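Re: [ENG-882] Designed sequences occasionally contain unexpected residues at chain ends

Forwarding the minimal case from QA. Structure tokens:
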């Protein structure tokens, strides 16, 4: 018999919030790059432009919405994935097959993406607001103000604008992150060279972050364009057609900044999660 610790259902949300606080400026720059109609600025150029135009703290515009998103989207997908995985692990000594991890990750991510759509939309709008002319800015004070104003001014359906794309992206990125992390960690530990330590967590999450970035970038571009639009797209199909007119590489616009943001976010999330699990997790005897 051996003793181990497993995550509490809300640890994924807390870990994601910690990571978001560190990587939010990168997320903001990614949104700005993806919503350019033409490629005018690269990542560093955009960062300099944002700081010069609006000040250093502008890099944290929309942080409250980002944290709100993590406590809806990420908390939901981690809770579903880890709860079901640990439940199945308690009834079987063998690790969950990879295809089951993929299916579970896709389900958890799809659900989390839908639940987190309102906060995600407000997050994108708050980050993109500074690019608009003063008369067109929404000027949300914080995430809850944004959610309330969208509900009051545009209706509940608008809160879930882009939900299909957000759910699809959530499924893909969760497969890359959670299923990818579990599988990478299993393979690394299986070599017998490394133990269950922070170096293993770093290497496994680095692999997972790379997989998630590549898989989700096309959907991320479409989701960002839909959520930041002011009615120029009639739906997902229309947005897809208009983006396709810019060429295949348009779906990977901002890939490098997306990777620079998503990979560190993935690494930090799993490092925080493993530390939360280590010190505050539930004791389980197997």
């Amino acid at each position: 018999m051996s003793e181990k610790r497993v995550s509490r259902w809300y640890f994924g949300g807390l870990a994601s919030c910690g990571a978001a606080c560190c990587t939010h400026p990168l997320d903001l720059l990614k949104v700005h790059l993806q919503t350019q109609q033409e490629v005018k600025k690269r990542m560093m150029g955009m960062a300099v432009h944002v700081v010069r135009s609006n000040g250093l703290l502008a890099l944290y515009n929309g942080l409250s919405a980002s944290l709100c998103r993590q406590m809806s989207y990420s908390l939901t997908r981690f809770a579903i994935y880890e709860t079901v995985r640990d439940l199945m692990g308690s009834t079987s000594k063998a690790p969950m097959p990879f295809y089951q991890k993929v299916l579970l990750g896709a389900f958890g991510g799809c659900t989390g993406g839908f639940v987190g759509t309102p906060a995600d939309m407000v997050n994108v709008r708050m980050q993109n607001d500074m690019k608009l002319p003063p008369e067109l800015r929404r000027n949300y004070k914080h995430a809850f103000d944004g959610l309330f104003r969208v509900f009051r001014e545009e209706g509940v359906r608008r809160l879930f604008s882009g939900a299909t794309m957000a759910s699809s992206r959530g499924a893909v990125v969760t497969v890359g992150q959670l299923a990818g992390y579990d599988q990478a960690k299993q393979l690394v530990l299986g070599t017998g060279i490394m133990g269950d330590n922070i170096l293993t967590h770093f290497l496994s999450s680095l692999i997972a972050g790379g997989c998630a970035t590549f898989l989700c970038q096309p959907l991320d571009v479409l989701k960002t364009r839909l959520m930041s639009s002011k009615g120029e797209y009639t739906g997902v199909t229309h947005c897809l057609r208009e983006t396709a007119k810019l060429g295949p590489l348009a779906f990977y616009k901002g890939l490098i900044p997306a990777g620079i943001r998503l990979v560190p976010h993935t690494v930090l999330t799993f490092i925080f999660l493993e530390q939360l699990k280590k010190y505050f997790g539930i004791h389980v005897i197997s």
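QA comment: On inspection the terminal residues look reasonable. The chain has one domain: 3-285. Proposing we downgrade this to a documentation issue.
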